[in-house]
């Protein structure tokens, strides 16, 4: 069974600053995806960024980037130039290649961006 | 392209009742998964349907059951409701391994 741990229940950052959210996971799988999802208050969850385990290069999507350390089973999210709209709960999730719908989620980090 | 839609958005039930939640998957997606999200926690996998067959189940009792229809829409049924079943129920669709596309969820309150 896989587990995903997010050790920071809450974080805050000033607008325009940079913040890093941590995630560690445990698995015996070799091929998998890792995701960061964003869930704004009372709104649906959307994908922020994804990483395929076989790719050594860290994924980047505009202001969002990850630091993927496969051997350490670590997958952190860096948000640069934080914006007020980034305020949300962020979930780290693991999905094995072998099962399209079954993702294991961490308990989330609530991020507040302050003006 | 139509996204994932869920109904109802909110509902209140009493202990022992039964509930049916509905989900329309994103156009072209043949896999639907259901998740339970308790307040302040991450989503927990309930089960997944692929082409009308259950294809994976999490640690939930048999009173949680589901269906997928030929158009890939899906239902989640919960019998004999308990207070701990109060949660946000999320439906997600996907076409292949990778990103899940979520609906806005159905918030169930059990009194």
SSE map:
The complex is a heterodimer of chains A (115) and B (111).
Chain A lengths: L2 E3 L4 E5 L4 E3 L2 E3 L5 E8 L6 E7 L7 E2 L2 E6 L4 E6 L8 E9 L7 E2 L3 E6 L1
Parallel strand pairs in A: 2-12
Antiparallel strand pairs in A: 1-4, 3-9, 5-6, 5-10, 7-8, 8-9, 10-11, 10-12
Chain B lengths: L4 E3 L2 E4 L5 E6 L6 E7 L6 E7 L2 E5 L6 E5 L5 E5 L8 E8 L6 E2 L3 E5 L1
Parallel strand pairs in B: 2-11
Antiparallel strand pairs in B: 1-3, 3-8, 4-5, 4-9, 5-6, 7-8, 9-10, 9-11
Brief summary:
The complex is a heterodimer of chains A (115) and B (111). Chain A is mostly beta strands. Chain A has strands at 3-5, 10-14, 19-21, 24-26, 32-39, 46-52, 60-61, 64-69, 74-79, 88-96, 104-105, 109-114.
Give me the secondary-structure category of chain A: mainly beta
Please tell me what the overall shape of chain B is.
globular
Low-confidence stretches of chain A: none
Percent helix of chain A? under 10%
Shape annotation of chain A = globular
Number of strands of chain B: 11
Order of helices and strands of chain A: EEEEEEEEEEEE
Mean pLDDT of chain B: 93
Task: Identify low-pLDDT runs of chain B.
Answer: none
Q: In DSSP terms, counting alpha (H) and pi (I) runs of 4 or more, how many helices of chain A?
A: 0
- How much β-strand is present in the residues of chain A? over 45%
* Alpha carbon gap, first and last residue of chain A: 41 Å
- End-to-end span of chain B in angstroms? 38 Å
- What does the radius of gyration of chain A come to? 14 Å
């Amino acid at each position: 069974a896989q587990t995903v741990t997010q050790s920071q229940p809450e974080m805050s950052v000033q607008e325009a600053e940079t913040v890093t959210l941590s995630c560690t996971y445990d698995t015996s799988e070799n091929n998998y995806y890792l995701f960061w999802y964003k869930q704004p208050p009372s709104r649906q969850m959307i994908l922020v960024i994804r990483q395929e385990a076989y790719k050594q290069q860290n994924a980047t999507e505009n202001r969002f980037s990850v630091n993927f350390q496969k051997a350490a089973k670590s997958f952190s999210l860096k948000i640069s130039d934080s914006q007020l709209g980034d305020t949300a709960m962020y979930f780290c999730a693991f999905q094995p290649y072998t099962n399209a719908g079954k993702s294991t989620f961490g308990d989330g980090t609530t991020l507040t961006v302050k003006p | 392209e139509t996204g994932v839609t869920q109904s109802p958005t909110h509902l209140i039930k009493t202990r022992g009742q039964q509930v049916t939640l509905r989900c329309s998957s994103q156009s072209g997606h043949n896999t639907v998964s259901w998740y339970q999200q308790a307040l302040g926690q991450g989503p927990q996998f309930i089960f997944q349907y692929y082409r009308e067959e259950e294809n994976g189940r999490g640690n939930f009792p048999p009173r949680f059951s589901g269906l997928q229809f030929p158009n890939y829409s899906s239902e989640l049924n919960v019998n004999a409701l308990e207070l701990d079943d109060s949660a946000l129920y999320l439906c997600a669709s996907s076409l292949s391994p990778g990103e899940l596309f979520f609906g806005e969820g159905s918030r169930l309150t059990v009194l």
